[in-house]
Amino acid sequence: MDIFRSYRPLPDAPWDRAAAAHLARRAGFGAYGAALDHLVQLGPEAAVAHFVDAPVETPDLDAEIAAIGSALDVHAGGPGAYGRESTDRLRRWWIYRMVRTPTPLVEKLALLWHDHFAVQEGIVIRTALLLEQNRTFRRLALAPYQDLLRAVARDPAMLVFLDNRLSSKESPNENWARELVELFTLGVDQYSQTDVRELSRIFTGWTTPAAHIAEFRFEPTMHDDGDKQLFGARIAGRTGARGIAEGEEALALILAQPAHAEFLARKLLEWFGHREPALDTVEAFAQVLRKNGGSIRESLRVLFSSAWFFAPEQRHAIYKNPVELVVGAARGAEVGNPHLANLEHHAVALGMELFEPPSVAGWEHGSAWVRTGSVAPRLNFALAVAELPHAARTVTGRATVNLDELAAQAGEGPRNLAAALAERFLQQNLEPDQEAALVEYLDAARANAPDERTGRREGVRAALHLLLAAPQFTLA
Fold first, then answer.
1. Is 355 left (phi over 0), alpha (psi -120 to 50) or beta?
2. Reduced to 3 states, what is the DSSP secondary structure of residue 75?
3. What is the pLDDT of residues 52-98, one digit of tens each?
4. Rounded CA separation 195/182 (Å)
5. Calpha distance 149→175 (Å, rounded)
6. Of residues 368, 354, 386, 351, the one with CA closest to residue 470
7. Residue 25 φ/ψ region, left for φ over 0, alpha for ψ in the -120 to 50 degree band, beta for the rest
8. What are the E-state strand segments in 127-280?
9. Out of 5-14, 87-96, 208-217, least confident range
10. Which residues contact 399 (CB under 8 A, 6 or more apart)?
11. pTM of the model
């Protein structure tokens, strides 16, 4: 059986709003209203292409961010900037991009690579290095994995974080070598200590001019130019500037190991398909990666176009991480001036502080995001969005929501309003007791309103509060 055979709409598996919404939640941060209608009209093949063929450059968004000014100016502190204020601005800049981007898969992949190649700002990595790494993740988000890995091996933030910029032939550092095979390419028990030791020798001299400079440099005088043995193969030592070729050869040899395709397949499936993919599914997707030369773009095209991906059991089956949750809420509510809505701080309260993962292994995912301690922060976040001031257009200096626009597609009465907003934000049916509670909450919110228009707006606020805090909203 071909697990990743193409999806074809059928009477019992139609291409409809539910199917398009599923694609948008997994390949981005959700689609709502007119954006969701557009995906339905495109049809499945063109809808998948809408995500995977998106350009990595977004000049209109860049211009929009530049026009906002200092609040999103990631260069404000200069090249040597670091610390809480500088990194908070970088977090705000990135979350704004996620909320406003026309290419959500690129940003979602940048988030995946940020988690996969985890680097912690807390060891005083300069903001300029974090910014350049983030841009690398976006630029190569959909590229063949080997291209991304080669760039990460030269990435100044990674070189500083794992101490490889100080690794020399006199004192080879094994941090980068070990994480390269264990966390970035092969997984545990797929290498020996000898492989780690030899890799540390191979990557001596891969450095930067200084810890605060976002520039890669190969320094031949630091490089161990002796022969090495990696996975049983000889890598000939090189002298001078030619020594960098040893690292290139080593990366290619690592990616040629049988374990790599399965390792990367599992990572992508866990992020986009299923938190605990079956072994045969992992093996089948590994074959997809091999067939496509490691191309993330073409491999995800196969995944998003497959009958497996659209199967009923895959829908609403992955917990959103906090960044996905706050970004999806802001996109769904069409928050004006999202950089003023404290989204980055809500993500931190929910447990995900961008540029400060808990370890080099990144964040723990899955049900870790919905433990008991997350309930209060989710309620607080939902309330914060619901209480944003109403405005029919973007207002300078404050984050807003257009309550009238959110209610525009609903019929009269609290039950119709509840159903329309539940369909927009949860994209699945409410349980009868949930629907009854929501209608009752809307009624209570409208009861003391001075007029029907105000009452309808207060009903939207009440619905936003409950729906964004609902367990269903945590599911992608």
1. left
2. coil
3. 999 999 999 999 999 999 999 998 877 666 777 888 999 999 999 99
4. 11
5. 16
6. 386
7. alpha
8. 206-207, 217-218, 228-230, 233-235
9. 5-14
10. 335, 336, 337, 338, 339, 340, 341, 388
11. 0.95
